Amino acid sequence: MVLRLDKEFYLLKPGKVLFGESGEIIYASSSVSLILGDPIVLVDSGLPSDHEAIIQALRELGLKPSDIDVVINTHLHPDHCGGNDLFKAKIYAHPLEIQRTGAQYLPCPERISDVRIIETPGHVDGHISVYFKGIVVAGDAIPTRNNYEKMVIPRLHTDANKAMESMQKIIKIAKIIIPGHDEPIEVLK
Predict the structure, then answer these.
(1) pTM for this structure?
(2) I need a labelling partner for 50 at 20 to 30 A (CA). Which of 76, 78, 81, 97 fits?
(3) CATH number of the domain where residue 146 is located
(4) Which residue range(s) make up the domain with 167?
(5) How far apart are CA 31 and CA 5, in angstroms?
(6) What is the pLDDT of residues 76-101, one digit of tens each?
(7) How far is residue 3's CA from residue 58's CA, in Å, rounded to a whole number?
(8) Domains contained in the chain, number
(9) For residues 103-134, b (16+ Cβ closer than 10 Å) or e, as one string?
């Protein structure tokens, strides 16, 4: 079920992560967000197995995958970009992620219309978050509510100091955080 967070911002699918008994990740799929502006922007695309859920969510809004103009990936781990092939859109990612993976995507600009791109390294060096009217799609800069509430950096990270700085940067500017693998978080100020 689609969650409307602003007249132009919709959470098509919340992210999810499941841990095994010894704390290992056994399943992860990212949040998928939609910004109905000009252009129409999708942020992260989940896994290929999320295609049906995304198509159904778009249908609820009177849209289809071909209506999406731009896909922005917070980073290029498969649980965040595995659904990119569903869209015939311009697909953007941070240049460091494009270089790391060899993906044939476009380097993300600092702004796409009313959507602002924020560098949030730490989980990976080329991690970005997306800002729109007080809502920040944080990807794995803040993967879960637990990371936010306990101010704990992502378990998987390339730089602990940058990961903490990125979390703090997001919290400072956000009214609502869309974590990579959880329900939306209202930021308490």
Answers:
(1) 0.96
(2) 97
(3) 3.60.15.10
(4) 3-186
(5) 14
(6) 999 999 999 999 999 999 999 999 99
(7) 12
(8) 1
(9) eebeebeeebeebbbbbbbbbbbbbbbbbbbe
